[in-house]
Design brief:
The complex is a heterodimer of chains A (about 210) and B (about 130). Chain A has about 210 residues and is an all-alpha fold. Helices cover about 70% and strands about 0% of the residues of chain A. Chain A has one domain: DhaL domain (Serine Threonine Protein Phosphatase 5, Tetratricopeptide repeat), CATH 1.25.40. In chain A, helix 1 packs parallel to helix 4. The termini of chain A are close together. The relative contact order of chain A is 0.15. Chain B is an alpha/beta fold and about 130 residues long. Chain B has 5 helices and 4 strands, in the order E-H-E-H-E-H-E-H-H. In chain B, helix 1 packs parallel to helix 4 and helix 4 packs antiparallel against helix 5. Chain B is globular. The relative contact order of chain B is 0.23. The chains are: A mainly alpha (about 210), B alpha/beta (about 130). At the A-B interface, helix 4 and helix 5 of A face helix 3 of B. Chain A: Keywords: Kinase, Transferase.
């Protein structure tokens, strides 16, 4: 996969986030401060501007630019967290012009480790980690089993979606929702849903004819 | 406390609210005699509730007199974004209550404390009893 593949992925995330903006905000209104959809939408719009202002030279470069822009532009906790995810993944990819699904899986695993270190969240805390962790695990497994990239990315997206759904009954232990205690139970975590959108976008960009 | 020889440590207050950061910074600086630079980095880049990495970076630059900078965040994205700005040995984040930490850090910085002393003073403010 080359730089164009990664920028297609970013475009697809941007489209999904824009389409789900109100849904993400409604979820955040239930257990947070009702800005997740708007924050991410603004962040990805800024990413689009940054990408056209300085077209990235490599897949790693594209992810570092994506991460850095989200850190600077999102304004909520998802900025530093998703920003760290993509920036670390980009750093791991280094300056290769072409990356394999296995290399992308390893890079996303590094990104996830950086997110967990920054936010100190574990699985079960009702955060994006609950979607990203099974997604990365499924992706690594699929790649190891020799699955093609489309199938591997679909497995990752399914695992993320399942992980996001599984946040509903959980009591939040990290993030704004943790201030709500038991009242955070019964709601889907918005950061877990946006994580699932990110993984689904990867599958869509591998399935398209582009 | 280390010898008061080097340049003074600066302090940056990172809050979701621009008003909260500015008022707390003004209060901490005034209580401590106004010698210390306590810079405010509040709100998102449009001035609404949130966090701006660019505002934090600008405040660090303003507060940095060569002795290092202690960042005191309020909560959530302030903490996460502040942690991304850390530079080993020169920019550090204090795990401290916002107002009490700011005052304790400013007092220690004003007394010539080194970066580690100012950080410790902010974090020890967690144990302050009011009653």
């Amino acid at each position: 996969m080359n730089t164009a593949f990664i920028t297609d992925w970013i475009d697809e995330i941007t489209r999904l986030v824009a389409a789900e903006r109100e849904h993400l905000t409604a979820l955040d209104a239930a257990i947070g401060d009702a800005d997740h959809g708007a924050n991410l939408d603004r962040g990805f719009a800024a990413v689009r501007t940054a990408l056209s202002a300085r077209p990235p030279g490599t897949p790693g470069d594209a992810l570092v630019l994506l991460g850095g822009t989200l850190i600077r532009k999102v304004g909520g906790a998802s900025g530093p967290l998703f920003g760290t995810f993509f920036r670390q993944a980009g750093k791991t990819l280094g300056d290769s012009p072409e990356v394999s699904p296995a290399e992308l899986a390893a890079a996303l695993a590094d990104g996830l480790a950086a997110v967990r270190a920054l936010g100190s969240a574990e699985e079960g805390d009702k955060t994006m980690v609950d979607a990203l962790t099974p997604a990365v695990r499924a992706l690594e497994q699929a790649v190891q089993d020799g699955a093609g990239r489309r199938k591997a990315f679909d497995a990752a997206a399914r695992a993320a979606e399942e992980g996001a759904r599984a946040t509903v009954p959980l009591r939040a232990r990290k993030g704004r929702a943790s201030y709500l205690g038991e009242r955070s139970m019964g709601h889907l975590d918005p950061g877990a849903l946006s994580s699932a959108l990110i993984m689904r976008a990867l599958h869509i960009s591998a399935s398209g004819s582009r | 406390m280390s010898a008061a020889s080097g340049p003074m440590v600066g302090i940056v207050l990172v809050s979701h609210s621009a008003g909260l950061a500015e008022a707390a910074a003004a209060m901490a600086a005034q209580i401590c005699g106004g010698e210390v630079t306590v810079a405010a980095a509040g709100g998102d880049e449009d001035g609404g509730l949130g966090t701006s990495a660019d505002r934090i970076a600008a405040a660090i630059e303003k507060a940095d007199r060569g002795g290092g900078v202690v960042l005191i965040p309020d909560l959530g994205s302030s903490v996460l974004t502040a942690r991304l700005m850390e530079e080993r040995g020169s920019v550090v984040v204090a795990d401290a209550p916002f107002v009490e930490g700011a005052v304790a850090a400013a007092a220690t910085a004003g007394g010539g404390g080194a970066l580690a002393d100012v950080l410790a003073a902010a974090e020890e403010a967690r144990g302050f009893r009011k009653l």
